[in-house]
């Protein structure tokens, strides 16, 4: 699979947070339909937790909670 073909629309800020495409894959490296796109804006907090509606940061935050 070619990641450059991913149709997701991440923001520029999202690409900074999850380079190079602004996508948070979590544990699902082989399952593109489960990837989350970061839609953060520059004014988002460093640890966004998805409060802006960003699924990538929400998923990332949730995953961090389950890490022992
Ligand atoms: Zn985000
Ligand atoms: Zn955000």
Structure, explained:
This protein has 68 residues and is mainly alpha-helical. The protein has one domain (3-66). It contains 2 helices and 2 strands; from the N terminus they run H-E-E-H. Strands 1-2 form a two-stranded antiparallel ribbon. The mean pLDDT is 88. The protein binds zinc ion (2 copies). The site of one zinc ion (ZN) has 6 residues, from loops. One zinc ion binds at residues 40, 44, 48, 52, 54, 57.
Rg from alpha-carbon coordinates: 11 Å
Count of separate structural domains: 1
Principal-axes shape call: globular
Largest sheet entry: 2 strands, antiparallel
Short summary:
The chain has 68 residues and is mostly helical. The protein contains two helices and two strands; from the N terminus they run αββα. One zinc ion (ZN) binds at residues 14, 17, 38, 40, 48, 54, 56-57.
Keywords:
68 residues; mainly alpha; two-stranded antiparallel sheet; 2 helices; 2 strands; binds zinc ion
Annotate the secondary structure layout.
Elements: H1 12-17, E1 23-24, E2 36-37, H2 55-66
Antiparallel strand pairs: 1-2
């Amino acid at each position: 699979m070619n990641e450059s073909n991913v149709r997701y629309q991440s923001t520029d800020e999202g690409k900074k947070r999850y380079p190079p495409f602004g996508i948070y894959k979590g544990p699902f490296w082989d399952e593109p339909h489960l990837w989350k796109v970061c839609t953060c804006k520059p004014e988002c907090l460093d640890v966004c937790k998805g409060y802006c509606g960003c699924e990538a940061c929400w998923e990332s935050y949730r995953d961090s909670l389950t890490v022992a």
